[in-house]
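Whiteboard transcription, Tuesday session. T.W. wrote the structure tokens on the left side:
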């Protein structure tokens, strides 16, 4: 009896020193009170925008509270994910690659694709820029240093145009680009939708190219859904609930995107304070491909670019980055039910 009591005291003491984790070997995962979801107020994040505004994500989660946060660009979002401030996010390949490389593969997992293409390159109407080759030496705005468009623009300026550096690529938040273009402070912008279409409508800017035409096959990954390895391991059921709603919206947007234009416009206006003109929204949606496919080759290519630009030390080993079994199952189930 005394021996049993001694063992119990020892176990309690060890728990006090080392911590007793309910999610330890063979134990259940910790219960969730909330899921923290992050995304951008962009057309290229339409599944997130619509899933939140419609209440579909919250309905899928049931008693688990959905909390959301809207970011301007990927690097700040990935910093929040790595800091434990959010659980699931919509973000571009550039910041994902940097987080994966700098953490030696421990920081992030891609669980689905969301959007491809959807990036316009526009020039100020009086800038004299007629084509992409005219961007050499010009002041080009991108949403944030190290975000997906920033990596692409810097690669183009240095590797394609042969500039010795990319100091003319200027990280400027999307919401500030129109004012700076009207004041002549920037000459061009390499930016996602609907911001490219907005610059055309609001400043008279000219579309000189779409980034997709610079990629093999005319398609590249722009937005993916990510989470942390820890969250995915502990709450795969919650990730599946989020991805089920995501997949449903991807399917709807592919089948008839303009049927959801008004709904998307209202949801975006609630985030930005302004409704988009119908022509702007339609243009933005026409340039965006909604897809569950993460298009992994984009990450290989952009990983090399990021290394060339010194955002990361070397091209990353992408082993383990993609864990897309849940979204593949959802897509397979949808295809089977359609037959």
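and on the right, the sequence the group agreed on:
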């Amino acid at each position: 009896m005394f021996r049993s009591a001694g063992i119990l005291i020892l176990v309690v003491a060890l728990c006090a020193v080392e911590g007793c984790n309910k999610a330890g070997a063979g134990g259940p995962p910790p219960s969730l009170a909330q899921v923290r979801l992050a995304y951008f107020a962009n057309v290229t994040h339409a599944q997130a925008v619509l899933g939140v505004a419609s209440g579909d994500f919250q309905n899928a989660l049931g008693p688990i509270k959905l909390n959301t946060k809207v970011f301007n660009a990927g690097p700040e979002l990935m910093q929040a994910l790595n800091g434990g401030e959010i659980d699931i996010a919509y973000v571009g390949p550039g910041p994902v690659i940097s987080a994966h490389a700098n953490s030696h593969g421990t920081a992030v997992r891609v669980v689905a694709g969301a959007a491809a293409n959807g990036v316009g390159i526009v020039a100020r109407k009086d800038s004299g820029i007629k084509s992409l080759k005219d961007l050499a030496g010009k002041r080009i705005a991108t949403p944030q240093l190290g975000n997906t468009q920033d990596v692409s623009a810097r690669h183009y300026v240095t590797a394609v145009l042969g500039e010795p550096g990319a100091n003319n690529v200027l990280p400027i938040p999307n919401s500030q680009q129109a004012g700076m273009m009207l004041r002549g402070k920037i000459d061009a912008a390499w930016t996602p939708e609907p911001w490219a279409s907005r610059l055309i409508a609001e400043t008279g800017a000219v579309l000189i190219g779409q980034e997709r035409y610079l990629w093999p096959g005319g398609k590249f990954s722009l937005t993916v859904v990510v989470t942390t390895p820890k969250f995915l391991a502990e709450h795969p059921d919650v990730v599946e609930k989020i991805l089920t709603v995501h997949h449903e919206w991807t399917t709807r947007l592919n089948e008839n995107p303009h049927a959801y234009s008004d709904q998307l416009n209202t949801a975006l206006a609630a985030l930005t304070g302004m409704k988009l003109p119908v022509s702007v929204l339609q243009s933005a949606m026409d340039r965006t491909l909604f897809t569950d496919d993460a298009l992994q080759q984009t990450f290989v290519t952009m990983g090399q670019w990021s290394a060339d630009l010194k955002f990361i030390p070397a091209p990353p080993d992408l082993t383990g980055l993609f864990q897309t079994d849940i979204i593949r199952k959802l897509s397979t189930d949808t295809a089977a039910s359609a037959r």
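Someone added at the bottom: The chain has a mean pLDDT of 91.
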